[in-house]
Amino acid sequence: MSHAVDAVDAAAIALNERSWTPSDYELTLARDFLTRRDGLPPRLLPGMPACPSPQGWVTQHVLWLEDVSHLADGLLAAWHDWLADGPMVALLAAYANLARSAVPLAAQLAQDWAAEWQAPPSAQETSWWEDWRLPAEQRRQIDALTDRLIMAGAVVVMAVNRGETGR
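-> structure tokens emitted (167 positions)
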């Protein structure tokens, strides 16, 4: 994960020092990523009830991280011919790498869920299941990952703002 943090820090420093102003292609890629990321629908495991809290299940967040990693990877692959590398590509690759670190957990949760529930559980049973499958330490790790993703996302937004106003 240190490479991801390094790329985020490098992009933030370059923006602050004004040694990088995103190109039109970089701006289009970043805007497309942010729009699609913000439009990702919440995803539940099959048979998982809706969460009574507006925050959603922790599992939903882990699945969202998986979806975000796939989204970023797909956009980077699609844009490769126009932007082989550069600060925006490194920044979005760092974002994808951070999110991708949750993919094994998403797969494990899906496997455990499928093995343990033959009939849809209640919201209370789902809460107990999450307490069992996502203990406090793991939730702290997810929170720390989310904090790093928020910082990376903030740098993407900062790059878009700089690119739009720095011309």
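The radius of gyration is 18 Å.
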